[in-house]
Amino acid sequence: MLNSTLLGMLAGRLEPPHMHRQLSRCLLEQLLRSFQYSCNLQDVSHPISSSVHTLRPSDIKAIAAIGSLGNIEDYGVELASLLQSTEKNLIQASMETLTALVSRFNPSVQLFPSLGSSRSVSKTEAIGLLAQAKEVVKSLQESQSLDYQNDWKLITIFHPCPFPASTFQHEISPLESIKNLGDVMDFLYEEVPKSFVNLVDSSLLTVLSLPHKDQNLISDCSRLEDLIWNWSYQDALEKLLASLKYNLKGDFTVVLQTSLQEVNMPPSVKWANVNSAKKTLVESQGKEFAPLGVDIWNNMMNPVGQKQPFHFAKIPKAQCPSQEHPYFFTYKNSNYSSFPPESQAEAVSEQRSFGTNIPCSSRDPSNTIPVSVHNLRPADIKVIGALGDSLTAGNGAGSSPLNVLDVLTQYRGLSWSVGGNENISTVTTLANILREFNPRLLGFSTGKGSQDKANAYLNQAVAGARAENVPTQARRLIDLMKTDSKINFQEDWKLITLFIGGNDLCKHCEDPVRFSPESFASNIQTALDILHKEVPRIFVNLATILHITSLRKLYLDNRVSCPRLIMRGLCPCVLNPDDNSTELEMLESFNRRYQEETHRLVNSGRYDTREDFTVVVQPFLEDVSMPETQNGLPDSSFFAPDCFHFQQKAHSQAARALWNNMLEPLGNKTKAQALEDEITCKCPTQEQPYLMTHRNSNYTYFSKAPLTYGSQMLCEDRVPSITSPTSVHILKPADMQVIAALGDSFTAGNGIGSNPNDIWNMMTQYRGLAWSIGGDASLTNVTTLSNIFREFNAKLTGYSTGSGGPSEPNAFFNQAVQGAKAKDLPEQVKQLVKLMKNDSRIKFDSDWKIITVFIGTYDLCNYCKDVNQYSAANFSNYVREALDILHAEVPNAFVNLVEVMDLLPLRQLFLDSRLPCPAHLVEGHCSCVLSMEGSSSEQMMQEAVREYQNSMQKLVETGRYDTKEDFTVVLQPFLRSIRLPLLQDGRPDISFFAPDCFHLSQKSHSEFSRALWNNMLQPVGEKTISFNFMENVSLSCPTLHHPFLGTYKNSNGTHGKPNQNWGSDLSCPGQTVSQGVPTSVHELRPADIQVVAALGDSLTTAIGAQATGLSDLGTAWRGLSWSAGSDGSLETHTTLPNILKKFNSNLVGSSTGTQKETAGFNRAVEGATAQSLPAQAYELVDLMKSSLDINYKEDWKLITIFIGGNDLCQYCLNKELYSVEKYVKHIQDTLDILYKELPRAFINVVEIMELIELRRIEREASGCVLSGMNLCPCFLNPQENSPELQEMKRINRDFQDRSTMMINSGRYADRKDFAIVVQPFFRNTFMPLDSDGKPDLSYFAVDCFHFSEKGYAEMAMALWNNMLEPVGHKQTYHNFTYNRSKLKCPTSEHPYFFTARNNEGQSSGMGAESSRDVVPYWVVIVAAAVGILAGSLIVWIWKIQKVRKHPWAGDMRTEEKSTAF
What we know:
Strand content: 5-15%
Structural class: alpha/beta
Radius of gyration: 43 Å
Helix content: 25-40%
Mean pLDDT: 81
Shape: elongated
Number of helices: 40
Oligomer: single chain
């Protein structure tokens, strides 16, 4: 490459016009070294030549250039400015390069720049170019150092092809452009003696890939237009230059220095090279442009007809003149003939007619209009239409030979399937044939033009269309038929011909997924589905795609004149591959499978559900071969001038062949119609007068019986829960209503149903057989997770069927994408969520969903190529991003996260030479795993597998996905270690694998689904972590003791820390129930309480009570809840219900254990704010009303409410949402609900604590496992003594004061069976201190925010004692010093719970104000615990518990019991 100094010299040297100069010796030497240029000057020394055809480099005395890159004004202002600068740098640098090369032979050569006043070619194009030419000539003539008449001059013209008129709305044709260029060359020819003129076709640099303003240019139709215009220009240019016009004088010539004649272009030069080069040009603006100068030089050294394309990415090596030919090559000294001689068959223009004789005597319609499509006669057809691409649009059908430009004309009136020009005697088309049976036929197209023209009528084929465009065509066709007053849409019989696929195959190699056979068939299906749904009385011809590789014969035979540039541009994937190449094999496979998928779609019977509708495959082109002349040459007379589209001759033959196909019975239709043969039109017979369908052909669609890989389901209990579960931890299999899956080709189902050795079928995605989501057939013969769940719930939905890509309707919620890596997973999730939300078949908000995620195979397969990009950390981040989306967006979801499979054992399949595994595909599949060499590589990959697996374990164990009761992620680790299946002779059993020996056969998918199902039923910590292909495990069943799908919470994992006894002693003699059930709440004794309940947040669900680390910090120990739990007894666990049980052992409503289903009437929710409290109240009321365990009207109920920590912690983030007014209003709304709905209720409202004390804990030094800065930012983030902190202290007190004022306002005093009492023990509280005077963290959970069981016990004691203290005299602090004897007893003087009315002293309603500033308050820390919201807590949980593995036991390993939050 040129160094930066040299680049600056080149890019900056733009001198004024009329100023010539010699390049400095230093610059010349640097340039020559850059070109690796060292020619022997002695061998080329000679006298100055008198003839341009013997002109040597040393003869050149002057170098100049004129021209441009084209009409760059049409690219827009910004791009035009870029190209203007690019143009000047390009031409200037190229000429300086060319000057440097010539100076090696003649150091005195001079460069005459002419760009100072140059401008881009205008829309009239030649004006600027001619002006430049005159400017150059004037400069040469006025030069004092140049002998104008006798010195040799080298002039280079840069000239582009004009753009098509449709592109930029100007009317210059290629022929006009050549005429204008000829005027410029005529001027030089007349005015400049001794000149060698290079012509550089700069259209190859710009015309096709620069970003046009008109974005519609990306269509294939516009691409065809670009190709034809460019070729026509080049063809005319070559003919001009190959003539003798500029060779009449011995001292002047013009030579085209680009490769135009495609027959001479090397096979390695692809169309893509041109695009790539042009793109490089634009991207390298301001960088190296010198390579073009070297290319021009080298082409001057090459004979005409052997010149090479230009380079831009690197500087090519400069050639030297040879001893045999030391001259610059001209047309004359190259002995060049522009075109090969035409064959005699081509040279003679055929004058034959394209008409046909219809020999049918019976042409009558049915006696009555038939109601069945299977009784349809030709004369019954009243409407004809067509869908497809340019072969149906008729591009070039009527073009004369060699008129390539006319291929752009759409001769719709000549179209084989729908054209209606003239009549059958002169124009053979299907429409004209049918008009012989029904002269009143409607719908046929006539004349020329696009599908939008009125004369196109019902020919809605679009030039350049692919299968994906046909549904749109179908929609437009239907609209046209419905709105046409001449057509009776309901009653008229219609014949529609669909022919598509050529453009798909032509581009399949550029995007094999988009243009896969499955995608092709899916698009066809979509179009046919539209017709099937909306159009009555219709017969659809589905013409299968032709055998397209036969086109290669025409392209490769140089004896036939064809515009190969156009052919290669239109169909690169067919014409570019070398013979016997893998690419060609893939094309053949795609071509065949396009045809097979077409048959499979129709053979499914999908379109034979109505009497008035059918689709019939017409296969006459399936095995068609290239027509040949009598001399054995490809017969180009069947093709338009571009040698790609059909000429009228081929349209006529196709029409006859289609007609005959329509009269041939299914199973006996012609598949290889020879186009060169005479085709006689058949006639309906008396025995069979109808158009042939499957029914009137007595044809049974063949369907291959699948192999059976079914399973037995022996589970007896298959009933769902009595009511729809509210928790994911109590889900029974029958509760599942929707199933979905995400992942790569192992979930997409690549190759599952492929026959052995059918490697090309590997691209088929058999989604209906996929282990985690497939729903083909039933469990009896296809074992998949979906079919297993369907045994429990026959209405399960979401599973995939059949084959195809993720966008096809039958894929449903199987959104796995073949070849996907972890980075692709978030997009799959987004697509799945979108589909679920928009699908009317499911209830997104309430249906329970199971989603299986399996990813990582292709990340490991590429690990060795970039260990940073494919690191375990990046892998985990992508998976986390995907799961986070599911967690945030999808309610009621159980997510299976299947652990990454250990791929290393699969290596043996490719190392064993006895196996027919395609080793050559290893590199493309999984080279990092399957073809690694050396122990170090193997060790690296082993570590990578372990790191991937560990990263998934750590992610789940953080507990970030267990913050909601309706969502969980469970790691299913059965693939952690796999054991390869072996035959008796020790060879791996490849029947478990697809033909590529990498993907899995249906046999393995069946085993995978069984293993996954069993994993799902196993408790966390006891799941199988190995997979043996040969084991053939049976399906497990839910048990009576564990009927649920296993989750962390319902697996009862242990944490290794013995429970300590934080019970209390209470002995209150003489406590009995009241004499008769009291009717007044003010006479309520402890023994009268029959029901207990609670509302609140994570402090009431007892988060952290027995947590030993972050992994179980999220567990809600509801049985230990201070206000609602009743685990054990008061002697072991101090809680309010356990205290009350000392007075009434039949107390109901308390919560036990850790599951929500045993939460009783504890309706608190982790992370709740006051805003969510009314919803809890409604839920509680509904539960009580529906409970059979209580007498709703008669039983006395004690309800404790504690809320507000989260509101305070988030106040500064949204002062409106968490304002004091809103807080009080939410509490008031809650109490209003209870006041209105609940009879006989005593309500404790525990006052919110002050949170300022949270700041006293030195969290890092204290070993707290979570940072507090994010958990309660409004109290922990402000600076000490800051205004923000002072505001928070004021708001905290306002929360207390104003809520208490509202409660004591008398709003709830009108009922004698209802009372609300504020319990203020948290208003001012001592911070518990240890022996060192530091906060005693034994009262707190491991996060230093929530309480430990010891702290919750203290809260229960303080609440109970508050309830027995008079209103106005309640203790507003609590001394956190554990003592088993701290509980008070009711007195004989006052055996009741205190209310404002039964208070013996004066009730202030505000408590003991005197104590406010005397006693410190630490319980703030507890508030922070509330501020942790389960949601926020989970986000910061990152402790990782390492799994210790049990020793092998036979072939099975199991996980150590572990927990994950």
